[in-house]
């Protein structure tokens, strides 16, 4: 009687082939993973940006501030967008230009901006400052 029960356990009444299903499932899974990887590769990555507030100081109270701002805004780089600006009193009739910009961190840094702005020696004092907002 025990031998008959062992033989019944070996018989597959529904005729399923687990190995074939496993291979098909593996193929489907690999195809889906490949499609997902392709889709993810096409999606652009996260772009880190910073908002920077620059303080641009003139040589003296006779410096043409409109011309100085024009010079600063003439700087064009990939990943740089100029924003609002205002003149802020420093003292003794001198005002500094406070100007906002947004930069892509991978492309533009504060060092590059400072270097480019200080090239306008006729308008900009070398004591330029900046504050980086995150």
TrEMBL record:
One of its GO terms (cellular component) is eukaryotic translation elongation factor 1 complex. Coiled coil: none annotated. Belongs to the EF-1-beta/EF-1-delta family. It comes from the Eukaryota. SUPFAM superfamilies: eEF-1beta-like (SSF54984). Residues 1-23 have a biased composition (Acidic residues). This is Elongation factor 1-delta. Residues 49-126 form the Translation elongation factor EF1B beta/delta subunit guanine nucleotide exchange domain. Residues 13-40 form the Elongation factor 1 beta central acidic region eukaryote domain. InterPro entries: eEF-1beta-like_sf, EF-1_beta_acid_region_euk, EF1B_bsu/dsu, EF1B_bsu/dsu_GNE, Transl_elong_EF1B/ribsomal_bS6, Transl_elong_EF1B_B/D_CS.
């Amino acid at each position: 009687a025990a031998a008959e029960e062992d033989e019944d356990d070996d018989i597959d009444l529904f005729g399923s082939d687990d190995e074939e299903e496993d291979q098909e499932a593996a193929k489907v899974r690999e195809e889906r993973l490949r499609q997902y990887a392709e889709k993810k590769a096409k999606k652009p990555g996260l772009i880190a940006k910073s908002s920077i507030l620059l303080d641009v100081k003139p040589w003296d109270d006779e410096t043409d501030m409109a011309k100085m701002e024009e010079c600063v805004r003439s700087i064009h780089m990939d990943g740089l967008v100029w924003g609002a600006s205002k003149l802020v009193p420093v003292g003794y009739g001198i005002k500094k230009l406070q100007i906002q910009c947004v930069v892509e961190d991978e492309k533009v840094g504060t060092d590059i901006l400072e270097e480019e702005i200080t090239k306008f020696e006729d308008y900009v004092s070398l004591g330029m400052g900046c504050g980086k907002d995150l």
